[in-house]
Amino acid sequence: MGILEKIAEIESEMNRTQKNKATEYHLGLLKGKLAKLRAELIEPKSSGPKGDGFDVKRSGDARVALIGFPSVGKSTLLSTITETEAAVSSIDFTTLQATPGRWEYNGAIIQMLDLPGIIEGAAQGVGRGRQVVSTARTADLILMMLDATKSHMQRPLLEKELEAVGIRLNKKKPNIYFKVKTGGGISYNATCKQSQLTEKFVYTLLHQYRIFNAEVLVREDVGLEDFIDV
Questions:
Q1: Distance between CA atoms of 3 and 8, rounded to whole angstroms?
Q2: How far apart are the C-alpha atoms of 206 and 152, rounded to whole Å?
Q3: 3-state DSSP of 155-219
Q4: What is the pLDDT of residue 48?
Q5: What digits encode the pLDDT tens for the residues 122-161?
Q6: What percent of the residues of the chain are helix, what percent strand, and what percent coil, each to the nearest 5?
């Protein structure tokens, strides 16, 4: 069974499972398995070709990724605010690789990345979705671009694709310290009472990821998905 089939199977089981306090732990583990499979899907295989136009060296003080469906004006914006000559056309999929630009703002140097337009199903690898969302994960900020003349569903569809690979928009990073070690087993500590996260869940999830030695310190009340993202 391939990765896509495994993802579909887990999603089907999650849809069949009632969401309540009794199933919270089980659903959390399923979400963990789903996140692991999706990460494997978007990460390039070590034996495959490197770069492919998406291996852009990080530069400046921050990186901003331009995300949107095809032909919404990402390349036009990049050409307008930077000195980069990006390919601009009314034809879909004019941009086929990550195009970097340099923008200076109040003394800060910001690296802008014009990414190819993504389509529904990008998180599962449709189109060039794997490369796009993988590159977007390296950004400090996601700038979502929408076409006001098109469907109002653009934003929720984009959010769904990004959420599927662990990119949480407009949400701060959970205050969790996590470090893989070479020995000593798993050490788990929480400085405050947890309403969802348990030591059992942490151990079970890490074992799913084949992590058997790690240090985990949780400094705030977090949800199961917060720990999965970390």
A1: 9
A2: 39
A3: HHHHHHHHHCCCCCCCCCCCCEEEEECCCCCEEEEECCCCCCCCHHHHHHHHHHCCCCCEEEEEC
A4: 46
A5: 555 555 566 787 788 888 999 999 988 888 888 888 888 7
A6: 35, 15, 50
